[in-house]
């Protein structure tokens, strides 16, 4: 905690990444990273405002928070900024009806979204659901649209499970971009809008905030571009190359 | 044939794409494109040298040629330049032992290649074999290599089956490039080496040759960059946008 405490001097708010910082996902739900349950508890006892800012798109917020609570974390749904709810807001604002290429675990977040006659495609970290058949269907939906809109929940390259490194949504986003000749809209880190909405939720300005994450691009680079400080942990997908 | 005949004036050799020009692949093997069986027969009766130059990487040359012969085409294995045999030559020259992410139909082309303890990944149009599990395995192999080498058999965006447009290998190549932070080596059109090897096989110089294909990038653009003329057919994946 010594290093954290120093870097936190002068800041009013902390954005915490979840996967790779609080826990590593994996079979049976995953495991808490050593010291992180206590670190969150200490942050919450401090005068600092805390917000969890995740690109997790395999699970609904409810499922994710339930898992973290079982691992011992002090966290509630209302404290989490996640890409699926942010996407739903965008879909409603723009009258978009998505074809979903997502993990079954996150589908419930889209329960009140009109999905008839799709006019866009939403992809998230779909894991095993990234079959050729499902990718091809998403591709065909995009190719049939006059103005194809592809929304990607994050653009991570990979993440770490207890069993090893796993392909994240970013590659699949690139595959559809290339095949269709389009550019995706990314909802989630490192999009500035996403960081801003997390800061807004705790009423903290960017220059008063620090982002703590394991992703040198999504977490650290993204936060710095928004005027925040950032700290990369040496857990999760951290590599000495970073 | 009138338009072809005009454009062919002054040329000594013709490179013919296969998928989308001679036939559309699909269930049951596919169907010949109207007029193409007779067009190939006429070309072969002419003084022009003819070479088939394909990015087909789902089937072995033997299987592809067998299919085309059953559809009525005058074609033999020795007349076909295809990426799998070209890749095998590169693997041997450079002492590369591939992890294959390919369609079962083309696996036999790699029968005499050493695949123990892989030091590169070869991907081709794998169709249904582009599962998340298989993509993740290829990703993990690359991430474990000190100098990751990814060879892609073509980089097509999509192709046309009788049932509709289908994702080609290009998107999956981009996915692995992005996830691993590397650049693939492409064997096949539009790589200049590939066109040159096809021209060499018929002893024709680039300026004396014309490429006939349905892909504005892989066939037309690639051939023109090599100094050949090119003609885009209005079959296969041709779109009026081209």
From TrEMBL, chains A, B:
Enumerate the GO terms in the molecular function aspect.
inorganic diphosphate phosphatase activity; metal ion binding; phosphatase activity
Any coiled-coil regions, as ranges: none
Keyword Magnesium present in the record's keywords: the answer is yes
Q: Which cofactor does it need?
A: Mg(2+)
A Gene Ontology cellular component where this protein is annotated is: nucleus
Q: Fetch the Gene3D superfamilies from UniProt.
A: HAD superfamily/HAD-like (3.40.50.1000)
Q: Which reaction does it catalyse?
A: diphosphate + H2O = 2 phosphate + H(+)
Residue stretches spanning the membrane: none
| Location(s) in or outside the cell | Cytoplasm; Nucleus
Q: Domain of life here?
A: Eukaryota
Q: InterPro entries from the entry?
A: HAD-like_sf, HAD-SF_hydro_IIA, HAD_sf, LHPP/HDHD2
Matching entries from Pfam families are given as: Hydrolase_6 (PF13344), Hydrolase_like (PF13242)
Q: What keywords sit in the KW lines?
A: Cytoplasm, Hydrolase, Magnesium, Metal-binding, Nucleus
**Enzyme Commission number(s) from the entry:** 3.6.1.1
UniProt enzyme class: hydrolase
- State the family named in the UniProt similarity comment for this chain: Belongs to the HAD-like hydrolase superfamily.
Q: What is the protein's known function?
A: Phosphatase that hydrolyzes imidodiphosphate, 3-phosphohistidine and 6-phospholysine. Has broad substrate specificity and can also hydrolyze inorganic diphosphate, but with lower efficiency.
Q: What is this protein called?
A: Phospholysine phosphohistidine inorganic pyrophosphate phosphatase
Q: Which gene encodes it?
A: LOC101834406
